[in-house]
Amino acid sequence: MARLAQVAGLSPYHFLRVFKRATGRSPHRYIIEQRVNRAADLLRDPRRTIVEVAYEVGFCSQSHLTVVFRRFMKTTPAAYRDEMLRLDGMMRAERATG
Q: For the stretch 53-63, what's the b/e string if a residue is b when 16 or more beta carbons lie within 10 angstroms of its beta carbon?
């Protein structure tokens, strides 16, 4: 956060206040939400392992991703992937017959 504040030309405290006012969340929460959203996108690719997704979006392990992902998405990365792949398959089948 200190580096972001420096880039913005603000004190860390002032940067935190301005960022929170502008986004409605702390910089840390914003970054975590962005990582979880990116992980959700990457999990739609069945060729990627959950470990690969975790590292790619900046988590130190699959278990850390799972804990944080569950907190935000109310499901695990594996369950989310299964559901998204099932829905994608249903949509492809509907297009093929429809």
A: bbeebebeebe
Distance of CA 66 to the CA centre of its chain: 11
Q: What is the pLDDT of residues 4-60, one digit of tens each?
A: 889 999 999 999 999 999 999 999 999 999 999 999 999 999 999 999 999 999 999
Please compute Rg for the chain using Cα positions: 18
User: Residue 30 has which token pair?
Assistant: 């914003």
With CA atoms as reference, report the closest residue to 36 among 73, 6, 74: 73
CATH architecture group of domain 29-97: Orthogonal Bundle (1.10)
